[in-house]
Design goal:
2 domains, single chain, 6-stranded mixed sheet, Dex49a from penicillium minioluteum complex, domain 1, 464 residues
């Protein structure tokens, strides 16, 4: 007997294949509820839909969107679109473009080797969480899509604990700017929750925690530039250790995360549009791991002792460096950044700015800076400069090491080492730096009052 297909049901090839894959792959996925009234704060994307295969069906994962209201000639990407979900094992993700067909999609980080399958307005990806992905396609340069496939949460707080302040999923919570967080409290922003405001963590001897897979935003609020407004940072603390995990921060009025004491940060996603909306900074012994940033100033501030940044995915916009060493007085010592993917560099290739090198010292310090290592970096779409150091305040800056740096699509401008007044710049070592498969040469570095003996370049690539 032959059954007639129901003409009202559209069964495209990707759905059939996804259902088959879902029955074979032992994976667990969790998507978050749509927040009520989110359109006033973070509307659903008008460009993309994302589905994850869950057993024998496709489940939609809500795609947020944010448009910049900071119009500048150098601004290249005017929208962000992103979705977050939890998964284990290899899974399939189906991406649907709401308007028009998909042309030439690319998935970054390129080293993951993820190749999309395409049919009309739909593509299919096989991914292995946890991962943080950028999806680009021809004609959609101002609409990048980000997919954050997280591992399942561990050590969730108890919502009935009186020391826990819980923000429920599926809702928008308006707490306002500089919401006071008592010392030692845990704030939990559930996946699918939006909190409008900033968290000002009060001083004290206890660790304060901000956790969850939800979103903290101040979208549509006026920016607050300059140093006096640093306390309006989205998550801010002075004399208190901070633990920050899982949260997404978007459209901040000042920095995304800044602490003056120890800041332990994992799996955060940071989006920002304005000048002076830096990504992350902490005091001595701070760390940030397994995180994503697309901010509009310095991504990571290595301003303290024994700081570590590892397993980061960075989308570098026009202003700011991936790693900044000081801004007029700080002193980074014994700091390490490793396993870094720079999936995009939107710095203006012709004009550029002087604070956008991979490792940068733009405003010098009068305190010693030493033993800074940046290693295992992949830049998929070019890099503005490899290193840029202006040492002009009398400091001794020494033992800066860049190791195993792979750059595709070129360096946009020469790097520079500039030593002025009574400052000292000593022991700069660049090892295994390749640009489109060829070793970095000394001609790529401009020296000003720096003896040549203080710069060493070595390379083991076969394409020297």
């Amino acid at each position: 007997m032959h059954l007639k297909p129901n003409p009202m049901l559209r069964k495209s090839w990707w759905m059939l294949l996804a259902m088959l894959a879902g029955s074979q792959v032992k994976a667990q996925t969790t998507v978050y509820p749509f927040p009520e009234n989110s359109s006033e704060f973070l509307p659903q994307s008008a460009e993309y839909q994302v589905f994850v295969v869950q057993k024998d069906q496709l489940t939609e994962s809500f795609v947020y969107s944010s448009q910049t209201n900071f119009e500048k000639p150098e601004q290249q990407s005017d929208w962000n679109h992103w979705t977050t979900f939890e998964a284990t094992g290899e899974i399939e993700v189906v991406l649907k473009k709401r308007k028009g067909s998909i042309e030439n999609p690319r998935v970054y980080p390129a080293r993951l080797g993820i190749k999309p399958s395409i049919l009309g307005d739909e593509i299919r990806l096989k991914i292995a969480p946890p991962c943080k992905l950028l999806i680009e396609m021809e004609g959609m340069e101002e609409h990048p899509l980000f997919i954050f496939a997280d591992a399942p949460e561990k050590n969730k707080p108890n919502r009935n604990d009186p020391n826990v302040l819980w923000f429920d999923a599926g809702k928008v919570h308006k707490v306002g700017l500089q919401f006071k967080v008592p010392n030692g409290k845990t704030l939990y922003v559930e996946g699918g929750a939006i909190v409008w405001g900033t968290f000002y963590c009060e001083d004290g001897p206890l660790k304060t925690a901000i956790k969850g897979r939800g979103i903290l935003t101040t979208r549509s609020s006026e920016r607050k530039p300059n140093a006096q407004n640093i306390p309006f940072t989205s998550i801010y603390g002075v004399i208190t250790d901070l633990e920050i995990e899982g949260i997404t921060i978007t459209d901040p009025v000042k920095f995304c995360i800044l602490g003056r004491s120890k800041v332990e940060t994992d799996n955060v996603k940071l989006f920002a549009w304005y000048h002076q909306t830096d990504g992350w900074g902490g005091g001595d012994d701070s760390r940030i791991t397994n995180s994503f940033m697309k901010v509009f100033d310095d991504n990571v501030k290595l301003y303290g002792k024994n700081q570590k940044a590892a397993n980061l995915v960075l989308y570098q916009q026009h202003n700011g460096a991936p790693f900044q060493l000081s801004w007029g007085g700080q002193s980074g010592q014994n700091c390490l950044a490793e396993n870094i993917d720079i999936v995009k560099c939107w710095v203006n290739k012709q004009a550029g700015v002087s604070n956008s090198a991979l490792l940068n010292l733009r405003k010098g310090s009068n305190r010693p800076i030493s033993t800074i290592t940046i290693r295992n970096v992949h830049a998929d779409q070019g890099l503005h400069q490899l290193i840029g150091v202006l040492n002009d305040q009398g400091a001794t800056v020494q033992n800066l090491r860049l190791e195993n740096i792979t750059i595709s699509q070129g360096l946009f401008q020469k790097s520079y080492l500039d030593n002025q007044q009574d400052s000292k710049l000593l022991g700069i070592a660049l090892s295994n730096v390749t640009i489109d498969g060829k070793c970095l040469e000394k001609e790529n570095i401009q020296l000003n009052s720096v003896p040549e003996k203080e710069l060493t370049i070595s390379c083991q690539s076969q394409n020297k």
